[in-house]
Amino acid sequence: MSFDGRLLSNISVLAAIVHSGSFARAAEALNLSPSGVSRAVTRLEGSIGVRLFDRTTRAVTLTDEGRRLYEEISPLLAGIGDAVSLASGASTAVNGRLRVNVDTFFSRRILAPHINDFLQRYPDISLELVVRDQLGDMVSEGFDIAVRFGHPPSSSLVARKLLETRTATVASPEYLRLRGVPQSPDELIHHACIQVRSSMTGQPLEWEYSRNGEIVPAKIASRLMVNESGTLLGACLAGAGIARLKTSGIQDLLADGRLVELLTDWKGESFPLYALYPSRHLPAAKVRAFIDFVMHILKIDEVLAT
């Protein structure tokens, strides 16, 4: 016999009659009319081919066939109830596997130093962090949430802006000792600047600055080009040249003097940080907990910046 949703609905009516002891009380519990309950039983009996209840004006009792059927389906109905309870618990209990899509800079410089705090705070979470250049297809690849810099693509994903961070032009003290300190964007042409190739377009990212409403493109000289932020930061720290980096994630390096910010009178580009997840409707507690945790560590980063 093929299964359909109506069969399960009719079986739930049978269970309600057994639990309540009458058609009338089952109708009340299920918010149905007594005739609706009676029709559901008739449909179930017709699909199975046996009578399930002996009905009199005073009582309703299961037939032998009805009793055997109920004994078989009762554990299954309990299992369905347990599954629903487990799923609904995901709205309040922070547990299960959490699969997160992140970009390199956010993962290495902002999230990784604090990730053990998240695991200790939520011991029932199993966390998988996937670092990649581009977002990809979150839903088909099974991601619960993504946290990435840059404007989100037009899609059905829910996008929650967490931060707007500026870029800083920086260099190591060793580089500045050997090559001097540029005083304006025009002077960058005389320095070794580390270029970054866009993962989206494949083209080098242009440098531009603004001050008092004036936007100034900067011509730069470069012998080194990279395509990801970890290499960019490492090369800059090693004295290979001047780089532009997001200030969120390098505050500790600026504070301890391993990097020096340049051209502070000029404003560089800014980048938003977004949390992306598939549905606004009842997001799981583990997703909400991760977003709250990211907001917490971003506040720590803001404190370092002051």
From TrEMBL:
Signal sequence region: none
Looking at the Swiss-Prot or TrEMBL record, what is one Pfam family this protein matches? LysR_substrate
**GO molecular-function term, one example from the UniProt record:** DNA-binding transcription factor activity
**Which residue range or ranges hold the HTH lysR-type domain?**
13-63
Q: Which UniProt keywords apply?
A: DNA-binding, Repressor, Transcription, Transcription regulation
Q: Does the keyword Coiled coil apply?
A: no
Q: Which family does it belong to?
A: Belongs to the LysR transcriptional regulatory family.
Q: Which PANTHER family match?
A: HTH-TYPE TRANSCRIPTIONAL ACTIVATOR TTDR-RELATED, HTH-TYPE TRANSCRIPTIONAL REGULATOR
Name of the protein: LysR family transcriptional regulator
